[in-house]
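Problem statement: downstream parser choked on a complex file, so we are re-checking the raw output for the s-citryldethia Coenzyme A run. The parser issue turned out to be on our end (a line-ending mismatch), but while we're here, posting the original submission so the record is complete.
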Amino acid sequence: MYIMLDTSKSSVGQSGDFVTIIDERSGKKFRLAIMRGTMGSPVVDISRLQSEMGLYTYDPGYGMTGSCSSDITFIDGEKGVLMHRGYDIGELAEQSDYLEVCYLLLNGELPARAEKESFTATIKYHTMLHDQMQYFFRGFRRDAHPMAVMVAVVGALSAFYHDSLDIQDEGQRKLASYRMIAKMPTIAAQVYKYTIGQPFVSPRNDLGYVENFLNMTFSVPAEGYRLRPAVIRALERIFILHADHEQNASTSTVRLAGSSGANPFACIAAGISSLWGPAHGGANEAVLNMLEEMQSASRVGEFIARAKDKQDPFRLMGFGHRVYKNYDPRATVLRSSMREVLSELGVEREPLFELALELEKIALQDKYFVERKLFPNVDYYSGILLRAMGFPRSMFTVLFALARTVGWVAQWREMVEDPLQRIGRPRQLYLGSPPRAFVPLDDR
Ligand code: SDX
């Protein structure tokens, strides 16, 4: 049996502080180093636990496990704080634009004017898809879910861009990242066009990143699309809010896939697959389904009762978070700007928003949600806004994937460039059969 004994304090740093573990049977002591980051909880370095003590750790869902070190994003879940490279998400959402945030995530600093212009020009240069890719789209059923098409098309990029697959080459790594950030809007718009049976609209490099995406999505050859500043600004903000989020399930999937040396397009396709689930990025679509099913505030109690019932698999979609034990700051930004944005979009009254507010109010007063610190997360309000902009709900998670691509790519690059990087390989607690002799077929 083992117990944690003490946390002795000396100087701060990788090997300054320790926890001591005592093996009660042998009396042997083991010291585990405590590592401190620039912010957040310290972590215990268990990398020598097996070689020194013959132990692994058991942590289903990795809730207590730091899988890497990172300079990109910081979350304080208790306080409801989110920062990229030290900049608060609220300030970035209000004062920055998406491509600037992309540059920040990739390079660590906000760009100077010339750097911003050059980065924007580079991204615009890569917006088109290889012409052959249009035939790839055509292999899908028109009624396929857009995420099913997107995951396949992004994985297929590795079959088209052979000059950005060598992960040991820094130039190729950068080229792959620029290509993905640039091509995701084109892919997302083409996925949409394909599923509704309209012709693909080519990217226009005279437009900004968000404008170009809106134009490819909503214009048709016969008729242009009126680009409204309110829609552009609202979508830009949604993209910024979704750009990165530390070691969430899809980002960890990208890192794990990439840890084997897989090419970047394959890694991002793996991330998209992970994002699709309703417990993760698929929740924005699920929230709208839930609100529509609920229809009126008179049924809020019924849905809350179902969410609390352990026999019922239903959970309040858009509520709860592994890290936030407070309001998700991204939901704060979306909620506070919602009325203004809806009215700018020409929506004076949105019954689903009123319903969402009512549901939130009742849930936040309910003992079950209070005790478990369950608050609205980023997915709770985003779908209502996207719907008001004209996106069908099957596209919501596609938009999340589009915006998150920069985070995946930045985290993937950081991992490949980390000298301590090695293949991801968790262990297990085996609960199966002990050794036994093979039984010949006739004797079973
Ligand atoms: C995203 O990780 C990230 O950073 C993700 C993300 C990002 O930007 O990358 O922020 C994006 O994925 C947001 C989350 C979207 N998902 C949902 O909105 C789906 C609904 N929420 C949950 O299923 C859940 O809250 C999770 C998946 C988000 C978090 O799951 P955890 O951390 O494993 O929490 P848990 O399931 O252990 O919950 C703790 C308790 C449990 O009750 P008890 O067993 O202790 O009695 O809270 C309950 C849960 O049953 N609970 C809920 C609930 N969420 C948690 N009960 C009712 N409704 C809910 N939504």
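For whoever reads this later: The pocket of s-citryldethia Coenzyme A is lined by residues 61, 245, 248, 279-281, 283, 307, 315-323, 372, 374, 377-379 (CB under 6 Å).
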